[in-house]
Amino acid sequence: MPQAPASVSRAFRQAPPDRLVEVADRAIRAATGAARTDVFIADYRIAGLWPVLDEQHADPVSPVAQRCFRSQESVVDGVEGGRCRVWSPLTVWGERLGVLLVELAGTPGAELVDWIGEVAGDLAVALRAADRETDRYRRVRRRERLTLAAELQWDLLPGRSLDHPAFRLAGQLEPAYSVGGDHFDWSLDADRLTVTVLNGAGSGLAAAVLTSVAVNAMRNARRSDGGLVEQAELASDTIFYQHRGVRHVATLLVEVDVREGRVRAVDAGSPHLLRARAGTVDRIPLEQQLPLGMFPETRYDVQEFDLEPGDRLFVVSDGVYAADPTGAEPYGRRAMARSIRSTRLQPAAEAVGTVMRELHAYHADADLRDDAVVVCLDWRGSVRRDGWEQ
């Protein structure tokens, strides 16, 4: 067995952020005798996995790498010459960054595969931290140039997926490289999960700036211990006194008590909330209130409902629900329900991608005419601080 993962992780912590992958390569090869390692990072559309070290081995749709990424389990793959490749997911709190490849001279035992998996987990934490200090890994993620609006939007995101004993959560933006105003945000704090989905008004940089103001106003209220009503009202007043009602943002704010499975919601506009339960997809009826920023000192009311274990919630923006390619009915009328039902065996992080792919197919792969956001919450069941609620 190689040295303890902690000693390799120490090398990660001491590495310069832009050289982290090279340091990991040397440390892993020294510990295991591996012939090669590499880190593959998922692109913005989660359409492929791209190497950091060896671009000559770029295979964005490698079936084995994709299987590891989607299953979130290590995969052992035999190759020519008796060599073996171990692929392990790079994941932090449920956020899927990519996969780690370790190529060995022979077939590894279960202990070595587990060791590589532990090292991959530590490396994922280091990569996420390094991402704040270098542009290197972001350049790998982008397969084309982002618009300035999209740059703002992706930097504003909390992440793209999150795992917790009580739930799984994931979101996706499209068009990934030119999204303007649509956005999502979330935060987990003690026993409270807050999720917001914004249906931005307009397009381009102006829409992205408006969304950024709204998101940061809600974060400011939330980080000052403000509830949903205070978050909505502060954001609404901030936008109104900037734009005097000319511009506004339709937003859905949701707060989940992870101990009880109780949901509190403020529907300030048009994002749509749907629930998949026992094979049936229904829209959850909420009283639609004024979008944020339409009038001064707008007041908002909270509505409540309960979740049951196994429930899946989807929040979608108008760019998904109301999408109506020429000659077709809106996507949300029937096609989206079929798409949601088809995801029943997929984890949340895969389900959002499936709905987006089906949306693109509904448009016959033409460019989306509007921004689109899909957020998926899988409710596993209430938990206490010390574990599962029985």
Automatic annotation (TrEMBL):
It comes from the Bacteria. Pfam families: SpoIIE. The keyword Cell division does not apply. Keywords: Hydrolase. Residues 164-379 form the PPM-type phosphatase domain. PANTHER family: STAGE II SPORULATION PROTEIN E, STAGE II SPORULATION PROTEIN E-RELATED. This is PP2C family protein-serine/threonine phosphatase. It comes from Micromonospora cathayae. The lineage of its organism: Bacteria, Bacillati, Actinomycetota, Actinomycetes, Micromonosporales.
